[in-house]
Amino acid sequence: MDASKPIILYDIASGPPVTCFAPNPWKARYALNFKGVNYRTEWVDLPDIKTVREKLGIAPNRTHSDGSAFYTLPIIQDSSTGDIIGDTFEIALYLDRTYPNGPTLLPPMTVGLQAAFNIQVDAIFSQHVILCVHGMPLNPETAEISKATFAQRAGKESWEELTVRGEERVKTLESLKAALDGLAKCYRQKDGLFLEGDTVLYADLIVGSWLAFYKITLKEWEEVQTWHNGLWQKLHQALEKYAEVK
Asked: What are the residue ranges of helices labelled H in 36-108?
């Protein structure tokens, strides 16, 4: 790879100091760092994501519940090849295919299984994301626009409805813990911290990306770290070597 032509990672900008916080961009960032490829970050404010995707010619790869287009990040733009990829799983496949000399994210015989795993893990954490919404470090300059957009997406009248408090919050946390039981069992199938023992796969980075998001946004993160014999804390810490923000 030409060091003078780094991959550009388009990521969602937080409030200052700008850093990565959203789970899907974390997946791409973990993958890029894991592969050891040269890249830099282009930060995009939430209200500007649609414009950026359209400018790059990348169609939305998701839809809202009403069927309308859902414009989101990450995107990578590979200056060495001219390729532009706008889906997290496709980014991982692309990195393995284009840069095979580094460690492998998705061994060929595991691609289908890891794709299914990605869907399942996303579902577990997404179903409980109401715990995290008010903890997102939005850019103050565009926060009101972003809050209105999130409320509209969720079918709520206001940002204040996008949270849970009191007993409802306690029950939602209990639900999250129960939902993670099955995932924790997957991590107990082999000796070692990762799903394949001592070998990191993209599947571990998927889980790690959600943990990174929850750490930033969930006020009960200290409690979550203790669940399942401290598994989530250990996994998050073990993946920090791939969490550099460039």
From this structure: 49-56, 88-98
